[in-house]
Amino acid sequence: MYSGADKLLHRIALGSPALLEATFDIERATHRKRIAAVPIRRPVFIAGLARAGTSILTRLLHRGGSFAAPSYRDLPFPLAPNSWARLGGKRHVEASERGHGDGLTHDLDSPEAIEEVFWRTREGSRYLRRDGLAPVAPQADTLAAFGDYVRLVLLCQGGTRYLSKNNNNILRLEGLATGFPDALLVHPFRDPLQQALSLLSQHRRATMLAREDPFRRRFMAWLGHHEFGADHRPFLFDGAPGRDEDATRVDYWLKLWDSVHQALLSAPARVQERQLFLDYDALCASPRHYAPRLAVLVEAPIDAAALRLPDPRQAEADPALLARAAETHAALRACFRARFD
Fold it and tell me: Which InterPro entries does this entry report, sorted A to Z (predicted)?
C-alpha cells in the first residue's frame, strides 16, 4: 500500500511524538470554536482481546451511516484529521486483503484502531512498558484532550456518533466511563481455545511478515498494535503470562485470554454499568435472533449477512488452563444472556 516516499513520510510523522503532539495542538486551536459546538452522544467503544470479531463488528456499525470513526485516511497525521483531509484527502487506494490473511479487505476509509496514536502520544510513557501494556488511569487533562480529539473526528466526517475500535482501551475503561458517561463499552469474546488458537496463528503470521518487511513492524508499533507479532506486548492484568513464557504455545494465549476477561468481568461498578459483553460465537450461530437485539442495544442497524465464524480447530492445551478459562467463559456467557435473551 505504501511507496518509499509514503514510508518516509510515515516514519517522520508517526515516529515523532513531539510532532504528533504539535499537529494535535495546532488542529485543536484551529477548530476550537467549531468543536465547542459538536456534541458527543452515546459513543461506542469496541474493546477486548483481538480475534473476537472486533473488525467485522466495527464495520457493521460503521455501515449504518451515523458513526464517525478514525481510518487509514487520517494517516500519517491522525491527530489532525481536518487539516490533513484538506491536504491528502483526495488519495485513492484499491481495497486489498489485510495482513491477517483472514479474507477481510480494507481501504483508506475502513474504520480502524488509529485512535491509539493519541493515547501513545499523550500517555505512552505511563502505560507502554517493555514487558507489556499496563492498566493506567488516564490523567484528567488527557481525558479532556481526548474529548476534543473525538469532536475533531466527528467534525471531519460529519457523523453524529463516535465509533472506536481499540483493544487497548481495556487499559483505561474507568477513564472512558468517567469522560463519556453515556458511552457503550462493547467487549466481544469467543470460545477461549478457539480465540487462543487464532491469536497464536496471527502471532506466527505477523512475526513472519515483520521479518520480511521491517517497516511493517515499526508501523504496527507506531499505531500501538502489540496484540501479536514481533513487538507483541501482553496486557498486564493479574494472571497475565510473563516475559519468560513461550508465546509460540497455545497455553500462553489461553493464559492471556483468561487474565483479560477476568479483568473485564471484575471492572468497577461505573464501568459495569456501561459494559456490553458480546458472545461472537452465538451472534454468528444465530444472527437472526441476536443481531436485532444488538441493533437495539447499540441504537444502530446491523446487517447480519456479513457475520462469519472460522471453522473450529483442535489443539492440546494445559487441562488446568482450559478448566479455568471455561469457568471464565461461562461467566461471560451469563453476562451476554442477561442482556440478549
Answer: P-loop_NTPase
**Model pLDDT for residues 139-169, shown as the tens digit of each residue:** 999 999 999 999 999 999 988 999 999 999 9
Give the Cα separation of 101 and 119 in Å (integer).
28
Could you read off the pLDDT of 174-217 as tens digits, one per residue?
A: 999 999 999 999 999 999 999 999 999 999 999 999 999 989 88
Report domain 25-89+97-307+322-340's class: alpha beta
> Domains of the chain: which residue ranges?
25-89+97-307+322-340
SS (H, E, C) the chain: CCCHHHHHHHHHHHCCHHHHHHHHHHHHHHCHHHHCCCCCCCCEEECCCCCCCHHHHHHHHHCCCCEECCEHHHCCCCCCHHHHHHHHCCCCCCCEECCCCCCCEECCCCECCCCHHHHHHHHHHHHEECCEECCCCCCHHHHHHHHHHHHHHHHHHCCCEEEEECHHHHHCHHHHHHHCCCCEEEEEECCHHHHHHHHHHHHHHHHHHHHHCHHHHHHHHHCCCCCCCCCCCCECCCCCCCCCCCCCCHHHHHHHHHHHHHHHHCCCHHHHCCEEEEEHHHHHHCHHHHHHHHHHHHCCCCCHHHCCCCCCCCCCCCHHHHHHHHHHHHHHHHHHHHHHC
